[in-house]
Write a structure and sequence with these properties.
Elements: H1 6-18, H2 21-28, H3 32-46, E1 51-53, E2 58-60, H4 62-85, E3 93-98, H5 100-117, E4 122-127, H6 130-138, E5 144-149, E6 157-172, E7 180-183, H7 188-194, E8 202-207, H8 210-218, E9 224-227, H9 228-232, E10 242-244, E11 251-260, H10 266-273
Helix pairs in contact: 1-2, 1-3, 1-4, 2-3
């Protein structure tokens, strides 16, 4: 038995994620033949069968499943080793995820505050849905992500709520249509609202962004709950006919961050997270 290479462990994890050799190869920026050869070499090094192959699918063997779990831990440890040996955290480049219903309203102040306090720290911002960001945090593709809670808890992920964000019911002042407009599936804001209201009033229409949602409310297609951070940032300023229903049900979410449980920079990440509630 030979010690496997880190590169081939990366190939194995990509194959586990995509369950398709071509897609896994694309994710690793190598040819399919290179990735396939890497998996074969890994099987040879470990003297076991990791995957069953055919033209249509990839099936991991029971041992392959176990090896994949350990490979994930090995890659995470190697990432931590490099991170620890890297330059000062506040003089490095970090990658931060953020969900769409937060990004436009918190990022300008958040990034400005960090640049003022830590001018040598470079931020790479990735906007995506909660589920995709969670996966990227687990896969070490993000240092942390700015999230809205409640959200499904995972044993390897730490959730740190920072502040409460009320969800405010907005309607057109002349509307008789009380159908509830929501974002499309995949946005956690949709779940936060549905968990607290009468689902029989939900409109058949869905939107991809809060800006589109506001326009549809202005067209009297329905009503909608909007995050207070969006309202405070002026999302309603161009719509004088829209009003806030003060008799609305009390609904809120909490804004904070998630990061991997054993992240060696978690203290520094927490220090950055508190800029979320700071104002310029």
């Amino acid at each position: 038995m030979t010690t496997p290479s880190i590169k081939n462990l990366h190939y194995l994890l990509a194959l586990k994620q995509h369950l398709h050799f071509s897609k896994a190869a694309n994710a690793c920026f190598v040819s399919q033949s290179t990735l396939s050869a890497g998996i074969s070499k890994l099987e040879q090094d470990l003297n076991i069968k990791l995957v069953e192959r055919n033209n249509k699918s990839v099936l991991f063997t029971p041992l392959g499943e176990k090896v994949t779990q350990y490979a994930d831990k090995v890659i995470a440890s190697m990432h931590d080793l490099v991170t620890i040996c890297n330059t000062n955290f506040f003089e490095s480049t970090i990658t931060v995820g953020v969900i769409p219903t937060i990004s436009a309203y918190l990022l300008p102040n958040f990034v400005a505050k960090i640049k003022t306090k830590y001018p040598k720290l470079k931020l790479v911002i990735i906007e995506d849905t909660s589920q995709n960001l969670l996966l990227k945090v687990e896969q070490l593709k993000l240092d942390f992500a700015i999230f809205a809670f409640p959200f499904e808890e995972k044993t390897n992920i730490i959730q740190t709520p920072i502040f409460k964000d009320d969800l405010v019911l907005v309607k057109h002042k002349n509307t008789q249509n009380n159908d509830l407009l929501l974002l499309e599936q995949g946005h956690c804001l949709r779940s936060h609202i549905l968990d607290n209201i009468d689902k029989t009033k939900v409109s058949q229409y869905t939107c991809a962004s809060l800006e589109t949602l506001v326009m549809m409310v202005d067209m009297e297609i329905g009503v909608s709950f909007l995050p207070k951070i969006a309202i405070d940032s002026g999302i309603l300023d161009k719509y004088p006919a829209l009003t806030i229903d003060k008799n609305q049900p009390k609904i809120s979410r909490r804004i904070g961050i998630i990061h991997r449980k054993d992240n060696p920079n978690q203290d520094n990440i927490l220090a950055l997270s508190f800029f979320l509630q700071c104002k310029l």
